[in-house]
Fold:
Amino acid sequence: MFSQSFLTCTLIGCATFVSALRPCEALAQTRTVAVLSTEASAGTEASRLAIREALKDALKTGGFQESKNFKIQFETAPDVTQQLVGLAKKIASSRVEVMVAIDEGAARAMAGASAQIPLVFAGVADPVQAGLLDTLTAGSSHITGVLNVVPLARQVGVIRQLVSGARKVGVIYNPNDKDSLASVRTLQELFAQSGLSMVEATAQRPVDVGSAARSLIGRVDVFFTFADTSVTQSYPALVKVANDAKIPLIASDAKSVRLGAIGALVVLDRELGMQAGRMVVRILRGARTVAMPPEVARPQLMLSTLAARKQGVVLADSTLKSAGEILK
Structure:
């Protein structure tokens, strides 16, 4: 007796029959996604793990089950060019359908390792400046991803939300840092629009941050920090001054909240991982990165009730309810 497959081949042609099988084969095959990150510095290990778990959850929700039709491999390398690039090339030479980079260093390494394998970055503030994309309005032939940037204009609004009576805002920065100078000019305009005034103190070196903060005691109602290199490298010194003097400290990134700031408007790690994971699902289902412009993750309020108590701030119930994450 002829088999059904033989009869089908006789009726419609073996070539057509084999072609018709391919979609089923594609669904059955194991798809591999490789995730690369640089070694976490102090305070960021939890962030990296949260993004990883969210990626897995997004893929599971999208129908890709580990050990069934999907495999995800996590790789980490020191943020040293030679080792990071070498690992990225090793990943690109293996059989992976999609590469995911958790940070900018990993994204640049993976982008240089392959010009064909789709790459989704998760946690790059400016992919154009990083050399990953030519524009923010469209993906490239193989690169897209999720931005984790929150405009300063939105971050400034948190000052009023958390410390409603604040009028004078203390800002510490390195006067030799061009990026910091540009941010300070922007903040001056934003504060003026919000009815706030800036009181500045400079710190050319991280060791100067503590004394700069102490010089603002009695002159400001609140501290506000952005990504200034001197301040970020000596944040605990600023936190100590804020706690001792009972001056509220408002930040613009999650790490600073974990180190002792009361709050910040940030892109939460889980949201970042879930959003990047959904992009990976679309690629695995056939979407092309060139038709997938980079996305901006939705920022949420992150609070520390412990820091609020230490700095003498009572957070309103409505504020607590609106927070995406609360550290206690």
Q: What stands out?
A: The domain at 152-266+302-327 is CATH 3.40.50.2300 (Rossmann fold). Residues 1-27 have pLDDT under 50 and may be disordered. The first strand starts at residue 31 and ends at 38.
